[in-house]
User: Fold this.
Amino acid sequence: MTVPSSYPPAGGAASRLEDIDPPVPMLILERGLVIRWMSQAAIREFGLKAERMVGRSWYELFPQS
Assistant:
């Protein structure tokens, strides 16, 4: 997944994981549980478009959690 330029990786960690793209669902969350990065496996698991998730709060997307 390529993160839109309006969502720069936090601390550079996201760009390293993006290069690896782990085969398991993985998210990088910021303060307030804002989604900053998702692995391809997470995108498939949630069945949502990454563009809709990155930059939004986990609780905004999944209020039941």
Residues 13-20 form the longest helix (8 residues). The chain has a mean pLDDT of 79. The chain is about 35% helix and 15% strand.
